[in-house]
Structure to design on (334 residues):
């Protein structure tokens, strides 16, 4: 199949492109490189360097290659704190950008299916665990609200115009491609696993935010899923949508179905590195719920999805290989 990958130079998008190519598909990347990395793009893959809000350029991309089987949206901003301080960025990029994409699909490529990267942040503080797709959604940040609004638009466009759309709600994407050539490189970096590894390699202690949560050891519990497993799930989602009737919208959770605490991650990272890792405790971060992990039965049932790389050892070893290969991320020269 032929794919258009919006945000394909970012962390998850770049891993999707690698997995899609391995599975025999072809990809064009559409990315403005504001938060993605040109170095993550494989040789021979076409880059359309443009902004998703540029509707004329997006229309031209479909005119130049009208036979995309699926479009994948990985182009969101995803920093909760930034969304609180600058909600305009998030509603413009995450919500308005999806509206532009839906309009172009409706007008230029109504047969092309859309797979959208969403988030468990649409739930806010969950009422129960594990979190199922139909549970109450009450996001507590502009980031979560911007994603939920995009889901609502996708559902409405599917119903009104016959588009076929699917929202895949991630829990904690992590790890790196087995090649070690691409990986996680955000600025600032807010995710636990890359911070554990980078600080440990630099001989610095990690700060764990909060030690009084209602969990087994007082630290947050999260569901960690390897980014290559996420990539495979997206291809399965495209196949599911292509076979679905017009007007289909659905939402599916992607996670392992179990949670690990912050201290579990520190211990597992120490096991991989072969030494105990120093850490200190800081104050809770605003809006951090005690636990987030997925009910993943729907992904298994509808997509035939099974994780292959999401055990903690594989996640940490793959991420460690990336950080050793590129200690300064994409700023490290090969």
């Amino acid at each position: 199949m032929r794919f258009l990958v919006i945000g394909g130079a970012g962390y998850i998008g770049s891993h999707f492109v690698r997995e899609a190519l391995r599975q025999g598909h072809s990809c064009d990347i559409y990315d403005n490189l504001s938060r993605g990395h040109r170095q993550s793009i494989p040789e021979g893959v076409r880059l359309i360097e443009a902004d998703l809000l540029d509707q004329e350029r997006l229309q031209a991309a479909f005119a130049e290659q009208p036979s995309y089987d699926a479009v994948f949206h990985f182009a969101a901003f995803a920093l909760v704190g930034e969304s609180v301080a600058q909600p305009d960025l998030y509603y413009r990029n995450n919500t308005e950008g999806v509206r532009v994409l839906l309009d172009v699909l409706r007008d230029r490529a109504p047969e092309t299916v859309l797979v959208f990267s969403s988030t468990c942040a649409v739930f806010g503080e969950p009422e129960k665990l594990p979190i199922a797709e139909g549970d109450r959604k009450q996001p507590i940040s502009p980031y979560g609200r911007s994603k939920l609004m995009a889901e609502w638009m996708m559902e409405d466009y599917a119903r009104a115009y016959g588009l076929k759309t699917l929202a895949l709600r991630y829990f904690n994407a992590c790890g790196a491609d087995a090649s070690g050539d691409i990986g996680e490189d955000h600025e600032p970096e807010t995710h636990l696993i890359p911070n554990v590894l980078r600080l440990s390699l630099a001989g610095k202690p990690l700060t764990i935010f909060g030690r009084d949560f209602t969990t087994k050891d007082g630290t947050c519990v999260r569901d960690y899923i390897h980014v290559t497993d996420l990539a495979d799930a997206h291809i399965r989602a495209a196949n599911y949508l292509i076979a679905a009737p017009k007007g289909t919208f659905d939402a599916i959770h992607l996670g392992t179905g179990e949670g690990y605490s912050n201290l579990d991650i520190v211990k597992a990272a120490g096991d991989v590195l072969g030494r105990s890792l120093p850490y200190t405790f800081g104050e809770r971060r605003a809006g951090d719920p005690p636990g987030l992990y997925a009910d993943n039965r729907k992904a298994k049932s509808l997509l035939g999805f099974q994780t292959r790389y999401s055990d903690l050892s594989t996640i940490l070893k793959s991420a460690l290989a990336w950080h050793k290969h590129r200690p300064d991320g994409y700023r490290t020269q090969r």
Notes: The mean pLDDT is 95. The longest helix spans residues 87-108. The first strand starts at residue 2 and ends at 6. The chain has ten helices and 14 strands.
